[in-house]
Amino acid sequence: MSDNSAYIHVTNLKKYYKGGIHALDGVDCDINRGEVVVIIGPSGSGKSTFLRSLNLLEIPTTGEIVVNGTNIVGKGVKIDQHRQKMCMVFQHFNLFPHMTVLRNLTLAPMKLLKKSQEEAEVKAMSLLQRVGLADRANAYPSQLSGGQKQRIAIVRALAMEPEVMLFDEPTSALDPEMVGEVLEVMKELASEGMTMVVVTHEMGFAKEVASRVLFMDAGKIVEEGPPEEIFNHPKHPRLQEFLSKVL
Amino acid sequence: MVLTNSFWDTAPPWLIKMKEDFILNFVDAGRWKWLVEGLGNTLLITLFALLIGLVIGVVIAAVRSTYDKNRESMEMQKGFGYYLLKIVNGICNLYLTVIRGTPVVVQLLIMYFIVFASSRDSLMVAIIAFGINSGAYVAEILRGGIMSIDNGQFEAGRSLGFNYVQTMIHIIIPQVFKNVLPTLCNEFIVLLKETSVAGYVGIVDLTKAGDLIRGRTFSAFMPLIAVALIYLAMVVILTALVSALERRLRKSER
Amino acid sequence: MKKFISIILVLVIALSVFAACGQKTDGKEDLVMATNAAFPPYEFKEGDKIVGIDAEIAAAIADKLGMNLVIEDVDFGAVLTGVAEGKYDMGMAGITVTEDRKKTMDFSDTYATGIQVIIVKDGSPITSLDDIFEFNADGDPVALKNPDIKVGVQENTTGDIYSSSAITGWGFNDLNEDESVKTDRVVRYKTGAEAVSALKSDKVDCVIIDNEPAKSFVATNEGIHILEGENEYAVEDYAICVKKGDSELLTKINKALADLKADGTVDKIVNKYIPKDGGAQ
C-alpha cells in the first residue's frame, strides 16, 4: 500500500435509471487518504448518487470503483466488509428509533467488530463526550433535537472506526441554528486527518475545510480544484452561473 | 348463591320460562358439556392455526420483501440466486392470490375432501387449513410492516456494514414487530371467529356445539345467545389485552 | 379436475338457492315449509327445484288448503328450531316423531315410516350393528365396540342422536358414564351426502342414516352397501311438525293428509320415488 496512489479510484462511472435518465454520465475521480473532498452542484446533478455509489447504496450501471486496490463493482466482492470501512452520514440522520443513543453507537461495533459490550460502551461514551452529548446516552432519538441527532449519527459512524466518512447533505434537514454545531464536529474530524467526502450546500464549509472541491452538473464532474480556485476563479460557465446563485 | 323457592313462586312467567329454557338447553343431559368441548376445539384450532400461520407468514414475508428490496442489485448480477428467488417469489404470490381469493370454508372443504382425502383426523385437517389460510394474511401484514419502515433505516444499517439479514434482524424486525403487533392480534381475533365454519367437516367447535344443542332441544334462543356471548367474551378479552400491549409499546417508544 | 368439479358444484348450488328465493306468488296465502333438501328420496334438488316425497305431499296439501307452497331449504337443525320458533309454518324433512320433540312442537299424523340403516364400504369388517356398539339390557347402545371406529352421521338426525348417546354419555340420552371415550368418534356432517363421501374416503367407517336416503346414496355411489337385516333398532314414524299450539293449521293439515291417503295420492307419490320391490321391508 503506497500513499502516493489514490485511495479511491473511480473510472467512467455511469448510472442509468429506467426511462433513460442518466444520473451519472461518466465520472472519473481520485480521492487520496486524508483528503476532504467537497462535492457541490445544483440539485439533480448526480452528486448524491455519486456519493451513494461509493459504498454501493446505489448500484452503478457500469464503471469501476477501486478502493484500496479492490474493484468493488462486480461479482464476489464482500461489500459489507467494505462498507464497514466507509461509513455514511445521511441527510435525515436515520438513527434507530427503537434504541437508546448508546445502543445506536454500540450495536454495529458489537455485532460486526465483535467488541465486548464493555469495550463498545467505553468507546461510545468517549465519542459522545467528544460531541458533548454524553449526558444523552440513555435518551431515545425522538427526544433529541435535529442537531443532536446528526452529531449522534456522525459518532455512530465513527464508532466503526472507518477509514472514510461519507456525508450526504448532513445539514440540509437542520434548522439554521443547528447547522453550526454539526459543521463544527465535521471540521474537527477533518483537522484530525479523516478522509471525508462531503456533499453539501454549505459553501462556507467548502471554502474553509475542503482540500479539493468537485463541481458536478448533469451527471459529470465539470470542474475540480482547490477551493480558492473554484470559488474565486471559476472557469466553466455552469459553475459561474451556479456560484452566482448560491453566493 | 341459591335462589329460594319463594323467589320462583313469585317470579314473572317470562323469567320462569327463561329458567326452564336454560335448564333444558344447558343442564339437562349435561348439554353444557357440548359447549365446553366446542370451546376447547375452537381454541385448539385457533391457537395451532395461528402458530402455523405465523411460520408461513414469516417465511413468505421474508421472501417477498427480500425480493422487493434486493431486486435491483440482484438484477445486475443475474446469478442463480436471483432466478431462484424470482421463482419462489412467484410461488408465494400465487399462494397469496389463491388463499385470499377464496372463502375459508371452501378451502377447508377442499382440504378435507380432496387434499387430505385419506386423513381421518378432521381436527388436524382443520388446523392445517386454517393455518394455511391465516399464513397468507399474516404474510401480508408482516410485509406491509417491513415496507412501511423508512428505507433510510435499511440504508443506515447497510452503510454500517450489516448485511441484509443482519439489518433485518437487528434493525428492521424489532421496529416491524412493534408496528404490526396490534394488526397481528386482530388477525388472531378474526381467525378465532372464522373457525366457526369448522363444523362443516364434522368438528364439534363452539358454533357446532350450539347447533347440536339446538338440534336436540329445538330452541334457538338459548344456544345461539350462549355461543355468541362466549365468542364475544373471548374477543373482548383479547381486544383489551391488545390495547394494553399497544399502550406499553407506545410508552417505550418515548 | 376434481377441484374444478367442486367449484362448478358450488356455483350450481348457489344459483339454485337464488332461483328458489325468486319464486313468484299468485295472491294466495303462503304455506312456508322448511326442509333440508339433501335427504333423497324425501327431499332433494333436481336442477333448481326441490323435489321428493315430502315436497310432493306438501304441494298436494297446499293445493287442498288453497295455499301457495313456499319451500325453504335450510340445515336439518334449523328446520326443527325454525318451526318450534314459528319462523316456518311447518317442517317436512323426514322428521321422526320422538317424545322429546313432542315437548316443543306438534306433529301431524304420520305419512311414512323410516328406519335407520348402516352403510359401509364394500369389504368392510363391520357386518352388523353389534360390530359397532355395545348394548345394555334394554337394547340401547352404550359404548363403542372398537374405540378406533368412527361413525358418520348427518347432524341432529336420529342417526346422530342414536350414535352420540353411545359415544358421549351426555348426548340425548344419558346412557354412558365412561367419558374416556373420545367424542369425535361420531362425526357429524351438514348433509347425508357429505357423510357418504367421507365414508368413501375412509374418514368414517360407517354411516348411520335413514333407509330411503341410504338407498339413493348406495344406488348412485359405487363401492358401498347397506347392511341388510340390521334395521330393527330404530323404527320411526315420519310426520309434519308445526309450532306447538298451532292446532288450527295442524287440524287442516291432518284433514288434508287423511284425504290424500284416502284417494291414494300419498301411496302414488311414495311409489313414484320408492319402487315397491326395492324396499328393505
Question: Quick recap of the structure?
Answer:
The complex is a heterotrimer of chains A (247), B (254) and C (281). Chain A has 247 residues and is α/β, with parallel strands linked by helices.
How many angstroms does the end-to-end distance of chain C come to? Answer: 40 Å
Query: What CATH architecture of the largest domain in chain C do you see?
Result: 3-Layer(aba) Sandwich
Number of domains of chain C: 2
**What is the H level of CATH, i.e. the homologous superfamily of the largest domain in chain C?**
Periplasmic binding protein-like II
Tally of separate helices of chain C: 9
**CATH architecture annotation of chain B:** Orthogonal Bundle
For this structure, what is the CATH class of chain B? Mainly Alpha
Which superfamily, in CATH terms, is the homologous superfamily of chain B?
MetI-like
- Helical amount among residues of chain B, as a percent range? over 70%
Sequence stretches where pLDDT stays below 50 over 5 or more residues of chain B: none
**What is the terminal separation of chain B in angstroms?**
49 Å
DSSP summary, beta strand count of chain C: 14
- Average of pLDDT of chain C: 81
**H/E element order of chain C:** HEEEEHEHEHEEEEHEHEHEEHH
Strand content of chain B: under 5%
What does this structure look like?
The complex is a heterotrimer of chains A (247), B (254) and C (281). Chain A is 37% helix and 23% strand. Chain A has 247 residues and is an alpha/beta fold. In chain A, a hairpin with a 2-residue loop joins strand 9 (212-217) and strand 10 (220-225). Chain B is mainly α. Chain B has a single domain, classed as Orthogonal Bundle (MetI-like fold). Chain B is built from ten helices and no strands. With 281 residues, chain C is an alpha/beta fold. Chain C folds into two domains: 24-111 and 239-273, Periplasmic binding protein-like II (D-Maltodextrin-Binding Protein, domain 2), CATH 3.40.190; 114-236, D-Maltodextrin-Binding Protein, domain 2 (3-Layer(aba) Sandwich), CATH 3.40.190.10. Chain C starts with a helix and ends in an 8-residue tail after the last helix. In chain C, the strands form three sheets. In chain C, strands 1, 5, 6, 7, 10, 11, 12, 13 and 14 form a nine-stranded mixed beta sheet that branches. The chains are: A alpha/beta (247), B mainly alpha (254), C alpha/beta (281). The B-C interface holds B 29-31, 33-34, 37, 106, 109-110, 112-114, 117-120, 122-123, 199-204, 208, 211-212, 214-221 and C 2-3, 6, 10, 75-78, 80-85, 100-101, 104-105, 150, 152, 155-156, 160-161, 168-174, 183-184, 187-190, 197-198, 201-204.
